[in-house]
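DM between two lab members

TW: hey, do you still have the DEAD-box ATP-dependent RNA helicase RhpA entry open?
JB: yeah, one sec
JB: this one, 464 aa:
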Amino acid sequence: MQTPVEENTQPTKSFKDLGLNSKILKSIAEVGFTQPSPIQEKAIPVVLEGKDVIAQAQTGTGKTAAFALPIIQNLQNNKSVEALIITPTRELAMQVSDEIFKLGKSSRTRTICVYGGQSIRKQCELLERHPQVMIATPGRLLDHLKNKRLKRFAPKVVVLDESDEMLDMGFLDDIEEIFDYLPQDAQILLFSATMPPPIKELANKILQNPVSIHIAPTHVTNADISQRFYVINEHERNEAIMRLLDKENHTKSIIFMRMKREVDELHQFLSAKGYKTTPLHGDMEQRARQASIKAFKSKEVDVLIATDVASRGLDISDVSHVFNYHLPLNTESYIHRIGRTGRAGKKGVAITLVTPLEYKELQRMQKDIGSSLELYEIPHMDEDRLVQALCKVEVDAEVVSLYEQLTEQFEPSQLVLKLLSLQFKSHKVDLNHIFNAQKPAGVKKLPRGARSHRSGHFKDSRRK
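TW: and the structure you got?
JB:
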């Protein structure tokens, strides 16, 4: 039987009121927390009491600290792993590990992060240093357990973080098998952004009289994020992304893709065009993944092309733009993706490419999130970029004889116009838009005829 905790999205208590000790409060002050978030206010006292918890809260609500702070306070320093935190991805495991290190600094909390792609021998050496908290991904953890590498492994508290993501990634069978190796009296904390039926079934199996906490977001999407969509044809996606990158004043951008193959293909396409991009997906070696993240964080590259799963848990600041190469498969994915921008009070832009066939699904998604996306038009290759490109081109000696032949038939100005027309037609660009100085403002609805949008022409970058 679950004991519900009444939802209250207005925190009224201080961290001191929640029963945290002076060492924990010191670490909280050092990381800059001033007041507990709703999930922290509700979860911390319950976890401190040793009760099982099933908590539903969106990403970015402070749920890591909600379970980490009471866990750190309850550690006994008995030279064994006292707390186990299971996360769906390596990146999220590393992020949780970093946060626990910061929050447990004053308490001298020892952690270990265990995930695939690392040396097993190195992980075993680190285990000999008696970490108190283990953060692990399901696959590598299960491998250690099956091969009996974890001595005296009996954690008193176990956390399942981002449980719905573990479901999406097919880890639920692994999770159930992992629990066969864990103490039956361990305190279990299950955190999830959504509660699909399989997660509820898992909770019924592993939790004992849990306290149920549900924190509904006050706003499903951030008001600081400008949400736009662009109607295109399927084959125009790469060209559309390229033109948007040219036209938008972006500093750091993340382009979300559905498949790993698409990540590599778009990375190769944009890199060949001179854009500074880096890929991120699950088939990459761990060293390559970390190199991509480091390059993006340090601004060596300004475009990260990633799948949802690989990007889960990334903590990257100052992302100005998020691009959805396809319409996300579900509302939760859309909310998670665009939440990468518009953080810490800064403005952000979320751009989604949509084909006419996807428009009904876009309408449904807008209804789910409670906000509308504005229709914009794909920009063209503008005059400035064309002039810059021409300035960089050196005249080929072989072209001189061709030029002499052509000028016998055409006036030079006529020849230039014909060649430009030929070039732009081959790239499906409507030249009428290039020289159109003014455009009326404000298109917010899908234009009539968009469902049969077959011209293949990109429109002017100015909003219609």
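TW: got it. The first strand starts at residue 3 and ends at 5. The domain at 3-214 is CATH 3.40.50.300 (Rossmann fold).
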